Amino acid sequence: MADNKRLVLAYSGGLDTSVAISYLKERTGKDVVAVSLDVGQGGESLETIKQRALACGAVEAYVVDARNEFAEEYCMKALKANAMYEGVYPLVSAISRPLISKHLVRAAHQFGADTISHGCTGKGNDQVRFEVSIASIDPTLKAISPIRDLALTRDVEIAFAKEHKLPITQTEKSPYSIDQNVWGRAIETGFLEDPWNGPTKDCYSYTDDPAFPPVEDEVIIEFKQGIPVKIDGRDVTPLQAIEEMNRRAGAQGIGRIDLIEDRLVGIKSRELYEAPGAVALITAHQELENCCLEREQHRIKRDIDKRWAELVYDAQWFSPATQSLNAFIEDTQKYVSGEIRMTLHGGRAVVTGRRSDTSLYDYNLATYDSGDSFDSKSSNGFIDIYGLPSRVAAARDVKFGNGIEVPSNTVE
């Protein structure tokens, strides 16, 4: 049974959410349970974050190393869907919010809370992702945001921290808003809000400058049913595959993205992303699908992939539509097994080799040399039948004077 005297807070360990612990208790009268997840964002340890939450007034601290869960259940779904919002963005933040929401709900049930709080503003996508995900899991829970709903601005935070002597070390505020996890890194705000301003080197952390790359790096990635299982012959877990490709592709400056994107809330925003591992793995996975998926299945899947990315970006991870698309995508992966050889260099991941026991590529059908098993004589009948609708329509057009005009060869 939920307790109306407790709420759960998505806690990062930074100034905003540290101040929010005491601020929420003071403004709502509820005790605060802090929830923190490690999804590969780096930085402080979970134990450090836990102790800070308790020191700032949390009555409980729920911390989870969710890196493997995130890689296996969220990043791999995005990989199988070749998920790129607007064709370029590999859904860095969008796929972490449903996982965090699941643990927020779990903590609310465990500690008897009736409300969940997050630190999102009223202008971004994440407020929608958190609240729609929470409602999809447990519609009885309420959701609030101190920044959006309780006017918790930065100057208010600093004054509140000083007044209440909270154990928070003040540091110079970064000019950027940054969200990162093992799948990638999102950078926005500050001088980037002027879309004419080019990125500077301090924007980047996961990638080195592609203009000055080290020697090219050749890598062989083995997939089993759409999931990377070996790199250069060594067994890897999904998390290890992402981490290794982050390191190797990042060293070559792969995965830098700069775009104006359409936010869910209806505004356009300028975003920078770094996703070296995600971009390299998706490139390899797409090429293996080129080998292993049947033509019409492949055409449909490309449309499904685009729609899947849009739905997940738009806070629909738990929706019936996304679950149905997941079933289709999962079915397509049963033969997506094999090896992809890639060259990583100077900002590009280039596929140079493909090998698969389940490939539909047939050398004897594809070759133009002797040994060709394709019966070219069959093409005459194929063209005749395939072109029949066009011929019938063209005959009608000619009959009624609407035929395609053929230019004269007469030279004046």
TrEMBL record:
It catalyses: L-citrulline + L-aspartate + ATP = 2-(N(omega)-L-arginino)succinate + AMP + diphosphate + H(+). Its EC number is 6.3.4.5. GO terms for cellular component: cytoplasm. Keywords: Amino-acid biosynthesis, Arginine biosynthesis, ATP-binding, Cytoplasm, Ligase, Nucleotide-binding. It is found in: Cytoplasm. SUPFAM superfamilies: Adenine nucleotide alpha hydrolases-like, Argininosuccinate synthetase, C-terminal domain. L-citrulline binds at residues 89, 125, 129, 177, 261, 273. GO terms for molecular function: argininosuccinate synthase activity; ATP binding. The keyword Ligase applies. One of its GO terms (biological process) is L-arginine biosynthetic process. The keyword Amino-acid biosynthesis applies. It comes from the Bacteria. Gene3D superfamilies: Argininosuccinate synthetase, chain A, domain 2, HUPs, Single helix bin. CDD domains: ASS. PROSITE patterns: ARGININOSUCCIN_SYN_1, ARGININOSUCCIN_SYN_2. L-aspartate binds at residues 121, 125-126. Residues 176-392 form the Arginosuccinate synthase C-terminal domain. ATP binds at residues 10-18, 119. Homotetramer. This is Argininosuccinate synthase. It comes from Bifidobacterium callimiconis. The gene is argG.
